[in-house]
Amino acid sequence: MDAARRSEADPDHRAAVGSVLESLGIDELDPLSDLDTAAAAGELCRAAGRVALPYPVVAALLREPGGGPPLALVPTAGSAAADSWAVDHGDLFREWTCADLDGRACRARPAPSRLGTRLGPFVAPVEATGPAPGDGVGARVDMHLTLGAWVVLGYVERALELAVEHVRGRVQFGQPLAAFQAVQFQLADAAVIVDGLRELCRFTLWRVVTNQEGARPDALGVRLHALDGARATLRTCQQLHGAAGLCDEYDVSILCRHIQPALRLPFSAERTADELAAAVERSGFAGLFPHGGGR
Amino acid sequence: MDYDFGPEAGKLRARLRELIAAEIPEGWLGAFSDDPADLEVAQRFCRRLAEEGLLTLAWPEEYGGAGGSVWDQTVVREEMWAHHEPRGAQYMGLNWVGPAIMAFGTDEQKRRFLPPIAAGRIIWCQGFSEPDAGSDLASLTTRAEPDGDGWRISGQKIWTSYAEMAQCCVLAARVGVPTERKHEGITIFLVPMDRPGITVRPIRSMLGRHHLNECFFDGVRAEPDEVLGGVGNGWTVIRRALAHERVGIARYARCERLLSLVGAELAAAGAPSGLRSLWARALVQVRVARLLAYRTVAEQEADAPRDESASVARLAVTQADQQVAEVLFQALEGRSLEAGPAAPVRGAVEDHWRYAQAATVASGTIEIQRMIVSRALLGSGR
To answer: What ipTM is given for this predicted complex?
Structure first.
């Protein structure tokens, strides 16, 4: 979590994080190429989430083929010059490709400012500069949604581990907090959410790679589950830390703050649920019985 | 990373659906209604499955089964539960009573009990829970006293499903003097339900007939060869039975079928937008419950089952069951309370809602599952 803390104090440190990822070969990974590479990309995103890595790993993994700009998801990607959107780490690259769920894509560049708030320390606006090639952007959008859920998975897994460590060590009323059934049950419920999200992330990655034309409902589904699950799990994990959970000295506070852009951008959980319902109506939802457009 | 069961599983699923379409009347909601014809449907279906070798698909070949893989068994569980368990009460004999007899039974017990289970001709009930031994099952007080070369059993069981229609009971009773270690002394008996001294009293409930009964055992004779797994070894048998129960019911499959059947209403123009959101979330939650069940199955296949995985799966699926029940009721609004063939989806939604309320209690309350999960998380530092 050191990189997250240090980058908050010195945002330029993020470039060093990017250099490390480059040296590890992030540019060589095309998550859409095959299942093994997709799984490696998923694990990278999960590992990034575990340490609140201050770098847009998903955007970087989904650069246009041939080393093009990183990919940001935005609510509606027009190409009018006046359009601008909040993008996490939007100031890190000179040029972006911004895409929306409808497959529209445009080029964008950072606007000269950064949010710099406690909940969006690295969020920065980007402005549209012109159209971008839309070929194959749909599958990359689906992969973006999916890998975003893998990042969230890393956050919540680590938060749960930290909560477990804390309640085992913290003694009140003469016994560890872990001895209280109210605490045990909250942790069990959080574990069910985290285990479920982990399985859904794996399944969705498989769906997106093996059904590149029809995985939109799957990708929206995992994003929705990640957002819902993260809100519930992080709240529990922070609460179990007591006042300490609000202090940046404790990693859980960094996790709870730095995950916020992933939960809010490019759109909310409720918007995601609406989009999912519409996508299921259009294309169905893979399972044991037909749904919506799969009927 | 592959979630495709393969073509053989696809064929099995298709065949089961053909059989269900041919044998089960539309709108049939299970064997346990007030109408004896519903039970006859299930018994006929079991015989048909037995003829096709599908009833004991999961059983090893040496016991007349087809030696089906855990994934074949998963397909069967899903299709049966999705279609209101057309095997009726037989699922219990097939899923765990038979396998427990294979694992713990004598040769004579195997010869006596396995063929009727394999032919779909015998209904079992499970005499475990007692008025003062529910989640804390090891506190059971039904006693088996030596009687010549056999035993005399006295005590009370409760929540016993199918007791009125069952021919045999897997009965847990205590032998000897109770000790500090409550699990010791518990013994499993395989007792015919027509033995003198057994009284069954149905309990009226929101689940309908046959699901909940009280059973009174008043000096019921058990023969020496009706002990399963040895005297005092009952807890081992029970643990195996409960493990089967945890993964035994594919509740997510019925949830998904009902969401599919009611889907048009859920997505209709004019439906509240919040309902669309609930529907979308329910679809995802049901998928998650299925994936967690598959994780448990995969661990079984690898011969590395973990208690906490089964508990996580059960917590997820029982809560999904209730979540889906509520979404369906929200969708049907004023018609949700109707029951019977004229009700929406021929009463399947109303039936599901009532059953879903029991999902977090039946086969052990989910509080016990939470204890198992938290114990695994917290380890010795708890």
So the answer is: 0.96
